[in-house]
């Protein structure tokens, strides 16, 4: 997830969940999951404000997010140039700051989305030919930096939507970026960490990094702890890094000599970090406050003054968990914390917990003198109150016979609403003795689908038809339909069909694929493996 809207704060990428960035001003929270949809929530009431589906989103799913800094200029609209504004209008635009969200995708493009207008502003193409792993805005200019699995780093001009500079960042995937406080240096990481001079695009320092891919990079100080020497903008600063499958967060110091390449200290947590936020130390004696959300759903809070080398890994000052009340005979159950970020006062925290599709967002003030805090929350009651409030705003439209209604869960399919004639009894869906069962073509005809149009030259239905048939077969447990759909060996049809499956059909499809009887069918076993791979992310996500 990501949050924003207001004062600019530190950033932290989140590769495992494909989309995070700490809150900016604690006003908005954005998230993007495997379904490719961008969702923006209002943190004040946990209300969904925007839901955006990029075109071809199933193949171009969102992989990373980054809010533009408070002073970023509005990128050009996708609709082309607009008329020149009057001076009075320009003044109004300055007062009304746009919230621009940069969205990296799995196909290498970057989208710039306006949460104020609720629409796509522009699209950055031609920089990457593989998955975008991280996007970062420059604090002062209109530049955007991105890195990818294609091993390159790209500097973008968001006003022209063109590549300003592109260079090779590593011999393998570049997974994370971070810009220095003065805006003149750039940290990049795959497994090793490099510090680049943005003017010359040359490596200034190397660091050993982690054994696995780095998932978070952020500076923890803006001034050196040793104030006796003149400050060049970078020497003496500390930065933090985390990696996937690594329970240690490492702290590094940028030194004047090139000898020291190892971490000066580390923080230990209970599981792999999935979301990281911190308060930046601006003076020598100010401690750094660190909030780390782990894959096990726990939140770890650290507070430490960075002052040189520390051999032993530091443990958290406070661990926060959330659980249900467990009234009566029910047992309390843990509620996973999805994200956490410090508010502008650097004391209170914004917690995001529960279900990623419908999260609960709450501002809390914690007594961190306690080593362990368990917050009791009745999430079912909170969600039911939210649902009741939403239901009162729903209006039932008047539907006539000319209207077209979308079939739930099947994108792009529509069917006419048929009103029964007066005086006629409703036709029962039962076969009389001696009657044969309806063919698949007849069933498609009942769904108002033209069979001649949905079939490919090879005689197989297209993806949308496959999704309709597969859902129908799973619900009716019809072996003939299931065999017809599952017998295909075309990889792209399998991928697109699974991608178009409605949520409620995912688990039945998993059970169907795991059936031992499937292995005896005529189609090749690799189709089963492909199906399992395609639905793995969806199943784990829900």
TrEMBL record:
Annotated InterPro entries: U3_snoRNA-assoc_WDR (IPR052414), WD40/YVTN_repeat-like_dom_sf (IPR015943), WD40_repeat_dom_sf (IPR036322), WD40_rpt (IPR001680)
UniProt KW keywords: Nucleus
Main subcellular location of this protein, as a coarse class: nucleus
Protein's UniProt keywords contain Kinase: no
Disordered: annotated span: 1-23, 72-91, 416-439
Superkingdom of this protein's organism: Eukaryota
Compartment annotation: Nucleus
GO cellular component terms listed in the entry, alphabetical order: nucleolus
GO biological process: maturation of SSU-rRNA from tricistronic rRNA transcript (SSU-rRNA, 5.8S rRNA, LSU-rRNA)
SMART domains recorded: WD40 (SM00320)
SUPFAM superfamilies referenced in this protein's UniProt entry, alphabetically: WD40 repeat-like
One Pfam family in the UniProt entry: WD40
Protein name: WD repeat domain 43
Organism: Geospiza parvula
Gene: WDR43
């Amino acid at each position: 997830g990501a949050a924003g809207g207001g004062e600019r704060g530190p950033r932290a990428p989140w590769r495992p969940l494909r989309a995070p960035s700490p809150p900016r001003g604690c006003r908005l929270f954005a998230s993007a999951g495997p379904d490719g949809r961008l969702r923006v929530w209002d943190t004040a009431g946990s209300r969904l404000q925007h839901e955006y589906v990029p075109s071809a989103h199933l193949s171009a799913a969102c992989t990373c997010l980054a809010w533009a800094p408070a002073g970023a200029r509005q990128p050009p609209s996708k609709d082309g140039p607009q008329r020149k504004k009057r001076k009075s209008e320009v003044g109004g635009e300055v007062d009304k700051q746009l919230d621009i969200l940069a969205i990296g995708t799995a196909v290498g493009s970057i989208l710039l989305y306006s949460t104020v207008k609720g629409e796509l502003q522009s699209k950055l193409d031609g920089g990457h030919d593989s998955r975008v792993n991280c996007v970062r805005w420059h604090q002062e200019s209109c530049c955007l930096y991105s890195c990818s699995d294609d091993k390159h780093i790209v500097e973008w001009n968001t006003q022209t939507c063109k590549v300003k500079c592109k260079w090779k960042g590593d011999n393998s995937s570049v997974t994370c970026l971070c810009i220095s406080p003065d805006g003149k240096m750039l940290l990049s990481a795959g497994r090793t960490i490099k510090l680049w001079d943005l003017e010359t695009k040359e490596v200034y320092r190397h660091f050993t990094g982690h054994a696995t891919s780095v998932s978070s990079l952020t500076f923890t100080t803006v001034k050196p702890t040793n104030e006796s020497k003149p400050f060049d903008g970078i020497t003496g600063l500390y930065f933090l890094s985390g990696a996937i499958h690594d329970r240690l967060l490492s702290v590094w110091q940028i030194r004047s000599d090139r000898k020291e390449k190892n971490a000066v200290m580390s923080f230990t947590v209970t599981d792999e970090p999935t979301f990281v936020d911190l308060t930046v130390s601006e003076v020598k004696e100010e401690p750094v406050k660190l909030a780390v959300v782990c894959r096990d759903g726990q939140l770890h809070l650290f507070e430490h003054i960075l002052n040189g080398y520390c051999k032993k890994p530091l443990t958290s000052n406070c661990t926060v968990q959330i659980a249900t009340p467990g009234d009566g005979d029910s047992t309390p159950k843990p509620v996973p914390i999805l994200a956490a970020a410090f508010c502008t006062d650097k004391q209170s925290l914004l917690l995001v917990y529960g279900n990623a599709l419908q999260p609960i967002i709450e501002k809390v003030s914690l007594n961190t003198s306690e080593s362990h805090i368990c917050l009791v929350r009745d999430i079912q009651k909170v969600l039911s109150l939210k649902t009741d409030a939403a239901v009162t705003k729903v209006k039932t439209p008047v539907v006539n016979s000319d209207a077209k209604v979308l079939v739930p869960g099947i994108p792009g399919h529509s069917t006419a609403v048929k009103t029964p004639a007066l005086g006629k009894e409703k036709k029962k869906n039962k076969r009389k003795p001696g009657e044969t069962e309806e063919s698949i073509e007849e069933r498609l005809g009942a769904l108002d689908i033209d069979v001649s149009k949905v079939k490919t030259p090879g005689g197989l239905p297209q993806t949308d038809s496959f999704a309709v048939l597969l859902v129908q077969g799973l619900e009716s447990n019809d072996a003939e339909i299931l065999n017809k759909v599952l017998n295909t060996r075309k990889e792209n049809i399998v991928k697109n069909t699974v991608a178009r499956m409605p949520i409620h059909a995912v688990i039945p499809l998993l059970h169907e694929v795991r059936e031992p009887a499937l292995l005896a069918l005529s189609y090749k076993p690799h189709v089963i493996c492909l199906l399992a791979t395609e639905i793995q992310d969806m199943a784990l996500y829900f």
